[in-house]
Give the backbone structure.
Amino acid sequence: MDEDLTIGQVSERTGLGVHALRYYEREGLLMGPVPRSAGGRRAYGRLDVEWLVLCNRFRSCGMPVADIRRYASLVSAGPGNEAERLELLREHEVRVRAEIEQLSENLAVIESKARLYSDHLEAGTASDLWTGQAPSCLAVEALAARGR
Amino acid sequence: MDEDLTIGQVSERTGLGVHALRYYEREGLLMGPVPRSAGGRRAYGRLDVEWLVLCNRFRSCGMPVADIRRYASLVSAGPGNEAERLELLREHEVRVRAEIEQLSENLAVIESKARLYSDHLEAGTASDLWTGQAPSCLAVEALAARGR
DNA sequence: CTAGGAGCTAGAGTGCGATCTAGGTCAAGC
DNA sequence: GCTTGACCTAGATCGCACTCTAGCTCCTAG
């Protein structure tokens, strides 16, 4: 059941690249060194793959490597520090929420610019954008169009 | 009306840091060099500040410097390339939307882990998490708790 | 007149997270 | 037995976006 996967197999099923996998281990993200085969090669288990997938998730929502290391060390220290783990998760949760909010706000600005462009392009009146008083979110473009 | 702001003043009102401002100019993000005062110092106008705020927005939702440079060069090339500008905006829009989606998905996983921890901590039953069959999203922790 | 703070340029350095290189070892198929 | 491709370690390098340094100039206030 503990499958003994090679680094290449783990790379495939986590999407993480063999270099990254070795890097994560070096950096202490993997609660202890991965067990080795007779020939000195990494023999990952199901547990490792699952954990790596989680690491990937953490990373891809911006959790720094250092925080993952901290979480890993709490987990591998065993039961008793659940409060600390929770705090780490909560802090990250807050950051991710804030990030999503920021992104949404910026997306709205981009959308409104894009809509203006596309409306005028569709109507074939794009060049009129720079003649009258331009809509505020294209002010920069309008001013530039009239020469710096 | 074109205020002639110093780099320090622009830094304050854009939140961008004088080093970053000079960097952006060097990198061609500012449609042409900023005009200088008699003594060779940058004299920014209202237009520049507005554009820099937009750049900041673009950057903070992950648009690469190279894309901003491209957009800037389209704008400063003048009217006629609106379709290309729109395409750039649209592409970035897609990336941002995807990013938000990913973030939301990962947030959900983190939330569910956090909820499990907090429920058990509140009930004072945290250590029970590692005894029975653990909920799937804590599988890694549970296995680790039983020794690698 | 002068001191101090802000600005200038060119170029070096930083931080993060990988990613790659060199110089080997290991193992499965022919 | 040999080839081939995946794997090993240690350490160098990269990419991006800044950020800082050195050595200078400029300008404003006292």
